[in-house]
Amino acid sequence: AQSVTQPDIHITVSEGASLELRCNYSYGATPYLFWYVQSPGQGLQLLLKYFSGDTLVQGIKGFEAEFKRSQSSFNLRKPSVHWSDAAEYFCAVEGPPTGGFKTIFGAGTRLFVKA
Amino acid sequence: DVKVTQSSRYLVKRTGEKVFLECVQDMDHENMFWYRQDPGLGLRLIYFSYDVKMKEKGDIPEGYSVSREKKERFSLILESASTNQTSMYLCASRGNSLRNFGPGTRLTVT
């Protein structure tokens, strides 16, 4: 069955420290991969996406993610976290165009940033 | 930028009431979606629509219906609201394989 797992329910990092949020997926083929961020009381904003090509993708707000096919992972990273990065982060996968309506979202990882 | 708007940010309704949640997008996208978001469960797809008057059930359609009479508007209907439908509801439209989300409606059913 198709699934997305974000193993960490919440993570706390110090401001200025590096960040890695984990995402593992189970899918029959290489899916499209996404990371979204949701600030409190807001909708979801797309941080970055992977469709094909270079496995290291750059996103907005200084985030990047690396697709590793062998590990079925798409982990999100940021070298230096800012207090404004405190939010909930969702990993999502979507099938190739023929199955593109069924995006599957992970349960989310809440990021806390301490001064 | 694509804009997806939802009619209410917060809504409080009583059990048994009929509830309408409205979503409007301004990018002429054919595909629109309704999700509910609950802690620890991520986003779950309720219904989606790939064209006017076309709709498909998502993963949790029970207790909900939808209406898409115009391309830009996708409505979610709770025929008889129940307390287990208290949740955050997110609307999205899709273009170029990218989903654009509205700000969400936090619905409380008492």
| Relative helix content of chain B | under 10%
Give the helix proportion of chain A (percent range).
under 10%
Which quaternary structure do these chains form?
heterodimer
Biggest sheet of chain B: strands, sense, closure?
A: 7 strands, mixed
Radius of gyration of chain B: 13 Å
Give the overall silhouette of chain B: globular
Order of helices and strands of chain B: EEEEEEEEEEE
For the record, the CATH class of chain B is Mainly Beta
At CATH's second level, what is the architecture of chain A?
Answer: Sandwich
Q: How many β-strand runs of chain B? A: 11
- What is the CATH class name of chain A? Mainly Beta
Overall body shape of chain A: globular
Number of strand segments of chain A: 12
Largest interface by Cβ-Cβ < 8 Å: A-B, 25 and 25 residues
SSE succession of chain A: EEEEEEEEEEEE
Structural class of chain A: mainly beta
- Give the overall pLDDT of chain A as a whole number: 91
Please give a structural write-up.
The complex is a heterodimer of chains A (about 120) and B (about 110). With about 120 residues, chain A is mainly beta. Chain A has a single domain, classed as Immunoglobulin-like (Sandwich), CATH 2.60.40. In chain A, about 0% of the residues lie in helices and about 50% in strands. Chain A is built from no helices and twelve strands. In chain A, strands 2, 5, 6, 10, 11 and 12 form a six-stranded mixed beta sheet that branches. Chain A has a four-stranded antiparallel beta sheet with strand order 3-9-8-7, with no helix packed on it. A two-stranded antiparallel sheet of chain A has the order 1-4. In chain A, a hairpin with a 4-residue loop joins strand 8 and strand 9. Chain A starts with a strand and ends with a strand. In chain B, the strands form two sheets. In chain B, strands 2, 4, 5, 6, 9, 10 and 11 form a seven-stranded mixed beta sheet that branches. Chain B is mainly β. Chain B has one domain: Sandwich (Immunoglobulin-like), CATH 2.60.40. The model of chain B has no long low-confidence stretch (mean pLDDT about 95). In chain B, strand 4 and strand 5 form a beta hairpin. Chain B has no helices and eleven strands. The radius of gyration of chain B is 13 Å and the shape is globular. The chains are: A mainly beta (about 120), B mainly beta (about 110). Chains A and B meet through strand 5, strand 6 and strand 10 of A and strand 4, strand 5, strand 9 and strand 10 of B.
